Amino acid sequence: MVLNRFMITPTSLQKGDTVAIVSTARKISKEELQPAIHLLESWGLKAVLGKTIGAEENQFAGNDDLRAADFQQMMDDPKIKAIWCARGGYGTVRIVDKLNFSAFKKHPKWIIGYSDVTVLHSHIHNFGIETLHAQMCLEIENKTKEARESIRKVLFGEDYKIEFQQKKLQTSQGIISGELIGGNLSVLYSLIGSASAMKSDGKILFIEDLDEMLYHVDRMMMNLKRSGYLKNLKALIIGGMTQMKDNKVYFGKTAEETIMDLVKEYNYPVIFNFPAGHIVDNRALIMGRKVKVNVQSSIVNVQF
């Protein structure tokens, strides 16, 4: 691992290393994982499947005890150099308090996933350890080449940056630096008041979400605002707000417009159209890493 005065970076992978694939949430079959396994092999890595793969209890990949024990085993096994979550859905919050992170804190390894895996990103961030917000194994073959390559670059410790053209509603130009935190808005909202809740002061917050009612977005953002999570940010970055839904009586604003309206009083950049989340171009984000964000007109460059 790499120590710096900000966070601990898990050790970079080398060819021949082993990556564990487990499911902390919904059930998944071995057949659905073949593209991800082949991708790891193309990078010179080995894949080992946990006991949760193929396990089933209603919608979950086995019961809570099995999912916790599977993740625990992979955290504690020194031969496992990274853990890639197979899929999201719901269920990670049901096992996080069953996990013992003692060995992980001494020998951290990359935890990879997004959406429901936001539970782990937020919980582990509070230990001072970086994690990798990136596409899960499921449907990795349907994501962009850039999304797949971004995972490889981070795992192997290569230089990594993201440059994109933002959807501009209202923002300021310039260069901002800060620790990157966040993930799925619904999950972050659900963690408030728990030991896994994020600490946002002085940091850059990233949020994304999928399949939510527009007024739910407003309700969640209002909670974050009233709880003080939005006041002292360095910047707010919005990824995919995908497949949002509305009532027959329209809410009247898009998700992006709702977010902008609630934070417009704050003096920090708000960046939209970031290539991460439940979208085809789901780029990797190093949660906990101090990043430099350069906003110039409609072009945004993020250097990790």
TrEMBL record:
SUPFAM superfamilies cross-referenced by the UniProt entry: Class I glutamine amidotransferase-like, LD-carboxypeptidase A C-terminal domain-like
Family to which this protein belongs: Belongs to the peptidase S66 family.
UniProt KW Protease keyword: yes
Positions of the LD-carboxypeptidase C-terminal domain: 177-293
Domain LD-carboxypeptidase N-terminal: 19-134
Originating organism: Aequorivita sublithincola (strain DSM 14238 / LMG 21431 / ACAM 643 / 9-3)
Gene3D superfamilies documented for this protein: Class I glutamine amidotransferase-like, LD-carboxypeptidase A C-terminal domain-like
Keyword set, alphabetical order: Carboxypeptidase, Hydrolase, Protease, Serine protease
UniProt name for this protein: Putative MccF-like protein (Microcin C7 resistance)
GO molecular function, one term: carboxypeptidase activity
InterPro entries in UniProt: Carboxypeptidase_A_C_sf, Class_I_gatase-like, LdcA_N, Peptidase_S66_N, Peptidase_S66C, S66_fam
Pfam families: Peptidase_S66 (PF02016), Peptidase_S66C (PF17676)
Active site: S115 (nucleophile), E208 (charge relay system), H278 (charge relay system)
GO biological process, one term: proteolysis
UniProt KW Protease keyword: yes
